[in-house]
Amino acid sequence: MNKSVLKSWQLPVASVAIACGLAIAIAHPVNLLANAQTTTTPSSPSPAADSTTQKLLGQWQSKAPSGEILNLLFTPDGKLLVSFIKSSAPEDRTPTAEVGYRIDPTPQPMHIDLLFPGDRQSVMTIFEFTKDGQLRLEISSADPGKPRPKNFSAGSALFQKVADSTSSSSNTPSARSEAPTSKTPQTEAIEYVSSTNKAQVVHHLQKSQFATNSEQLAVKLPPETENYRYQIVPQNKSAKSAIVIAQSKKTGLKSYTGAVFNYKNSAGQSTLAMTICETNEPTSTPPGIPQPPKDSPQQIKCADGSSQIQEQ
Q1: CB of 194 within 8 A of CB of 30?
Q2: pLDDT, tens digit, for every residue of 3-14?
Q3: Residues 206, 239, 192: CA angle, nearest 5 degrees
Q4: pLDDT in tens, 250-308
Q5: Structure confidence at residue 310 (pLDDT)
Q6: Which residue in 86, 174, 204, 265 could disulfide with 271, CB within 3.0 to 4.6 Å?
Q7: Nearest residue to 11 via CA among 110, 168, 155, 159
């Protein structure tokens, strides 16, 4: 296993509606899929928007330099399903997040609003279709409750249409979580910790708080397997972090601690960052809780005797 430092991942919660799929699957393959639950009452497009809506409907994908794919599925009932795909294997897809959307094709660039449940403010942003048929969507400067961006920034994303179908069956795999298809016991632990981290991210995006047990998550973390004991470490209700540990049961195996932090970044945005720490030597004692970031994910620091990792 490669011991290189895990590149700390961050996501302004403000931009979650269109970027959460990209943000929650940077480091490791995931072996859980969530039920796509309706987050808001879908709004029907106006007659003037029919032509643009028809062009928008279907599945769009954007490929990151690292090879991962951000998948968007626009449905005719005003739903946008977002997932992240590391490979064609079902286990390499993140939980699907669902938001509502509505468009106004009259302004240029065209307007799109992403709708959250309850009293959470919508994200107002812009989009366009390029001359070669791609979808350009402004991501980086779009925040809930903030004015709509007037122009596209360097953080805008280009998506290629890959299917006209609006069925979610091909986009959203089974809601049942499967055991990691591990080649080594330590890979098993990393995959379970990684899956739990990502499930905590999705839970926080939907509920504005972390889950206190695996029953609240899309993935059901097993209490133990042949090689490891697993536990979501209880935090108080106002906790700004979620912690999961994998304690080795056998000699020669390292132990792991996963963490997801909610903090304010240097721009004052509420932001999520996650990491996995691995003990430097085989031990049944998991790493201590990592040092949380103050305003940058690079400030996350694993406890003494452990290091951040990434899976190759």
Answers
A1: yes
A2: 322 233 333 333
A3: 65
A4: 999 999 999 999 888 777 777 788 899 999 999 999 999 999 988 877 888 999 999 99
A5: 63
A6: 265
A7: 155
- What's the per-residue H, E or C state across 218-238? CCCCCCECCCEEEEEECCCCC
* 113 secondary structure, DSSP code: E
pLDDT tier at 63, thresholds 50, 70, 90? confident
Q: What angle do CA 173, 178, 179 make, to 5 degrees?
A: 150
CA distance 62 to 69: 6
Q: Is 42 exposed, middle or buried (0-12, 13-18, 19+ CB in 10 A)?
A: middle
Domains of the chain: 33-163 (2.40.128.640), 177-308 (3.30.700)
Q: How far apart are CA 181 and CA 92, in angstroms?
A: 11
d(CA 187, CA 61): 29
Per-residue pLDDT, 103:
94
pTM to 2 decimal places: 0.54
CA nearest neighbour of 137 among 62, 79, 193: 62
Residue 17: strand, helix, or coil:
helix
Which residues, including other chains, have CB under 8 Å from residue 7's CB and lie 6 or more apart? Answer: 26, 27, 310
- CA count, 13 A, side-chain hemisphere, 309: 26
Would you give the distance in Å from CA 200 to the centre of its chain?
9
Distances (CA, A) of 269 to 12, 36, 221, 299, 304: 6, 26, 30, 16, 29
Q: How far apart are CA 302 and CA 292, in angstroms?
A: 9
Provide the token pair at 116. 């959250």
DSSP 25-93: TSSS-----------S---PPPGGGHHHHHHH-EEEEEE-TTS-EEEEEE-TTSEEEEEEESSSSGGGB
